[in-house]
Structures are given as C-alpha cells and as structure tokens.
Amino acid sequence: MRSGIRNLFLLMLFMRLLIVPGLAQADVAKLLSLEELTSGADAIVMAKCIEVESFWKNNKVFTRNLFDVQQSLLGQHSFITVNTLGGTAQHPVLKTPVTTHATDNFGFAAGDEFVLFLQQRGDDEFVVLGGNQGAIKVKIDPQTRSKVIDSFLKKPSVQADQDQTGKQLTFEEMSLVEFLDRIKAVLKGQAVKEAEQ
C-alpha cells in the first residue's frame, strides 16, 4: 500500500515536471513563405528517415531521427540527425515507458521521405525550421505514381482555412520536382541578391 502511494506521488511529481512554463507554443504560428523558410535554413534536404530513437535529456523525452540525404539543396550532407521534442522512452527512475507529445508532431517514421528546412544546433544536430512547415512529407500520387508533396502552406495546427490576414489558404498537391525547382529558384535569387550587396 505504501509503495503504491509513493509510486503515485512520484508519477504525479514527474507529470508536474513535464508541464514547464515557456515550452508551450501557440496553436497557430505565423505561416512562413517558401522564401522565409529558405532564407532561415542552414540546410535544405530531400531525405529518407532511416532510424527513430527516443531518449531522456534534461527531464524531457526527445526523439533522434536519422535521415539518409538523397539530395542536398543547401549544404553538403550525407546523413542528418534531427532532434524533436516528444516520443516514448524508458523513464530513468520509474523504469517504465513514458510518452510525451509536442505541439509540432512531425510524424517521422523509418522509410518516410521528407523535404526538410533545418537549422543547425551543434555539430551534427539539426532542428526543423518553422515547426511543421519545415518538414514536408513526400508521398506517392495514387493516380500518376509520381512523388508529390502537400503545398508548403499547409500547417496541421492551423485551425481555420485562413491565415492571420484572412487570406484563403490552398492545400493542393504539388509535384516533388516542381517544389524542388521552386526551392532552387529561391536559393538562386538569394545568391544574386547577396552578390549585388
């Protein structure tokens, strides 16, 4: 009986530690244009997730996502590690699996392909720029069997079909080739602007 109460107390204390002020994010974040995502990124890659592993660090669960880079649009990378908040990992004290969730749930799974806009955090670690906007999942169009992406404007945490200015958002699919070409054009435009300065 006493150990049950102690375990319940430890669990309640642990749950309280998970609710840390300052970690909460607004459900509706600023929608970033392709130009904003591109200019804010340290790396832009087309990559396949090959490994997902959760771990404890500083009383929080993080997930290390390893990607095999198929194409680097910005930076030169063969493999990239992207750390995300949340996941399921063995609690170091309670010795039981604990699952935590974050506002930006990227849904990375081994075998899935993404176009990633990344910011570097340390030597070999990256975080996704712009929340869910910076991780665009590649899928196969069932009719054409070609690779497509959802429009980069799509943001799952946006509740309405309008941005902050009331402009209607579109969620049409776009071919992967067209999307990568748009990114390259933005990168080329940025290089021209920097050379002129």
Global mean pLDDT: 77
Shape: globular
Helix and strand run: HHEEEEEEEEEEH
First-last Cα distance:
73 Å
Instruction: Please give the radius of gyration in angstroms.
Output: 19 Å
Descriptive overview:
- The chain is of the alpha+beta class and 197 residues long.
- It has a single domain, classed as OB fold (Dihydrolipoamide Acetyltransferase, E2P).
- 23% of the residues lie in helices and 36% in strands.
- The protein contains three helices and ten strands, in the order ααββββββββββα.
- The strands form two sheets. The protein has a five-stranded mixed barrel with strand order 1-2-3-7-6. The protein has a two-stranded antiparallel sheet with strand order 4-5.
- A hairpin with a 6-residue loop joins β4 and β5.
- α2 crosses α3.
- The protein is globular, with a radius of gyration of 19 Å.
- About 16% of the residues have low confidence.
In short:
With 197 residues, the protein is an alpha+beta fold.
What is this structure's SSE topology?
Blueprint lengths: L1 H17 L15 H7 L2 E15 L2 E15 L4 E7 L1 E4 L6 E4 L12 E8 L4 E4 L6 E6 L6 E4 L22 E3 H21 L1
Parallel strand pairs: 3-7
Antiparallel strand pairs: 1-2, 1-6, 2-3, 4-5, 6-7, 6-8, 8-9, 9-10
Helix pairs in contact: 2-3
Features:
single chain, OB fold (Dihydrolipoamide Acetyltransferase, E2P), two-stranded antiparallel ribbon, alpha+beta
